[in-house]
Amino acid sequence: MSYSAKCVEKLAFTAANIPWNKVSCPEFKNFMRKYTGRHLPSLKKNYLLKDCDMVIKQIRNSIGNNNIRISVDETTDRLGRYIAHLVIGKLSSEEAGRPFLLALKQLDKTNSNTISRFINESLGLYCCQKELNTEKLNGLSDGTSYMIKTGTNLKVFYENITHLICMAHGLDLVSETIRLNYPDVNGIISNIKKVFLKAPIKVEFYKNSLPNTPLPPEPVLTRWGTWIQAALFYAEHFDVLKQVVMSFEATDAQSIKKAQEFLNKANVKNELLYTKTHFKIIADEIEQLENIGLKLNQNMEIVEKVYTSLKNTPGKVGEMAFQRLCSLLKKESKKPFYMFSK
Fold it and tell me: What SUPFAM superfamilies does this protein map onto (predicted)?
């Protein structure tokens, strides 16, 4: 059996997301004893720590003597807790290399100090600081101010680190600029979403009226590019969607009343068509950047493609989107630098 297969076998419970305290359940213990002929181990044993060391050793073997790339991200789970993740992988000019989740930790608060400490402690699991200082280390994060400061902080510990900003997140910030300049379009998207939320009768009416049209998409704050994707949907189906929403009684819900008010505004259809014509590339390229395995030259081509497209986009909003992209490319530096995807 291969080393990797042994790791999977030993971590079967963890891989299946089964809490280890389940082994103390009498019925489960009897079931396993009956069908495997073996006794389950006690929870007092330190199996998981040993298996953790085994997995880290496997990661070291995979990366070998190559330079290292890390990617750090912080998000909020459904309970509102701040969760930081650190992904590590091989930095090679020949291939993207497989990424590994090295560490995951709940933070009391999110700032440059807590993220810097988390990265330093997590890399300590992989190898000592002295070894990392002999290799080139590329660090990737989003473009928030505390992540930029984190990159500066890490220079103290790792003199060879190069901090890069995730281009997919950068393009999402550009789409956020577009959203802020189109409050009426945003009003349509947010209110129509509420019209069909927990309203099975209205959903059924929608499906009967538009059998070949899916329900309006719901933009997700933590998923990049979803607002523009929603705007593209409304641009394509504006007339039929308006007909359905206008057939509802405005007195039934505040969201219906607001949605109808926004739909009746003269400018919204033109704004949706403008977004579809000039900003569809942003949603498309974010999706491309989220693909695992893109090479360096492919990332650079995507950056140049979006840059050229926004530069040639007419109108005030197009100019503001282009300026936002330029400011991201020049962030923390007096000259442009390329940003790469996770």
Answer: Ribonuclease H-like
